[in-house]
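Sequence decides. Consider this:

===
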Amino acid sequence: MSPFVIGEEYERSRLLEFLGSGQTQSGVLWGREEQGCLICTSGGRGGKKAGYSDERISDGTWWYFGQGRTGDQSLRNAANSKLSSGNFSVLLFTTREPTAKEVADRGTYGKLFSYCGQFNVSGFEQFVPINGSRQGDKLWRFRLLPVGEEKYNYYSEQNDLALDSSSDLREMQHRLLSLNSSRVEPRINLAEYRSRSAAVHLYASLRSNGQCEACGSVAPFTRLDGRGFLEVHHLTRLADEGPDLPSNVAALCPNCHRRAHYSIDRKDFGKRLQDAIELKENIIAG
């Protein structure tokens, strides 16, 4: 969740205010207020003429190109380093120039940014344009996987990494931690990424035993598979070296989930919830 609405447009000042950032030019933004979150802006006038452009793929993922306007791009670049780390959620916006009427009404030539949703970086690779002004340059492009409420609360029993609801929680916890710690490559494929996320979300649902892990209320209704319906919330926006970790997710009722994102006391609420989940995880680990 975020305070932005998919499809609505915002001025850059609103994006900077959300992050607590003073970056006036960069296409990748970060700041002091949301330290596990990046805002990535896509589009503008330069990309296609240079021989490349950000691209939405048919499966809902995006290719997003890194920063560096001339020559080979480097993962040591501050923005590219953050994207390649996998430690940040991404709020993606497309960019457009305002019309003459909008300039007159707003009194500014500033670009407008349309919100596309929240994403995680699931992988990255080099890309070399074959034409345009960047022809022959080694660029980095990052695979952005959409994170929506429905996608964030699913799991598949047919997937090798999905966990069985009859498994012991300690065994499940150990397996999930092993999956993340064993990842050596800087990227994993989308199927594996989704599988690991799904497994952690199932784990959080089973750990909750049908009760909100914040307020203790019983889930508002029962799902078709017999589990109580609770929404999976990330305690921080960080990916923690993988799609998810058991200690970074909580199963919440819809009210508490929204409180965690929108309430005036969301930071204090989040800290208490993080402490409660840490205690639960320590008990399970023994």
Residues 6 and 132 are 32 Å apart (CA to CA).
